[in-house]
Amino acid sequence: MGHDARRPRRELSVGEVARRSGVAVSALHFYEAKGLITSHRTGGNQRRYGRDVLRRVAVIKVAQRLGVPLATIRDALKTLPEARTPNAADWRKLSEHWRADLDARIRKLTQLRDSLDECIGCGCLSVETCPLRNPYDELGEAGPGPHLLDPG
Question: What UniProt keywords are attached to this protein's entry (predicted)?
Answer without folding.
Answer: 2Fe-2S, DNA-binding, Iron, Iron-sulfur, Metal-binding, Transcription, Transcription regulation
